[in-house]
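Progress report, Aim 2. The chain analyzed during this reporting quarter is listed below.
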Amino acid sequence: MDEVVKKHKPTKSISIKQDRATLTLQVSAKVDAWLKQIEEKLSGSVVVNRSDLVNFFLEKQAEVLSKDQIEKIRETFFDEVRFAQWALTQVKESKRKGESLSLKDVINLSKALDSDAPRKPRKTKGGGSTGAVSEKSPNESTVFGSDETIKP
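Predicted structure tokens for the chain:
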């Protein structure tokens, strides 16, 4: 007798894509403290794991970041070398297209994107606008002999 052997096709499980983020030690300790606090205050009536708690807080966050949040991110993560490379790429791309775009134009564009309102001019040592700025932030460079201060 010939027996027919049926091969079972493996069933495909539907998986949900999960993005993972690495927490710093400080943030991880904070999450652990929150979990401990939840366990103590809610006496086991709620079961929450690390992912649930982080997702809970992220879901409560608005879809769009505020201007203050964007500014704090810029202050924290700004990289002058990366900005210079980006600016150079923008100038090269415009030249390739036959457009006229200078480095000064790219810097002005970057400033316009940083804020909707123009910033107040900074005071100089001599009271004039020579470009020698007496007050500057750590993320700001000074151009001497020009009327413009480069700000990312």
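Residues 33 and 86 are 41 Å apart (CA to CA). Confidence is low (pLDDT under 50) at residues 117-122, 127-152. These observations will guide the mutagenesis work planned for the next reporting period.
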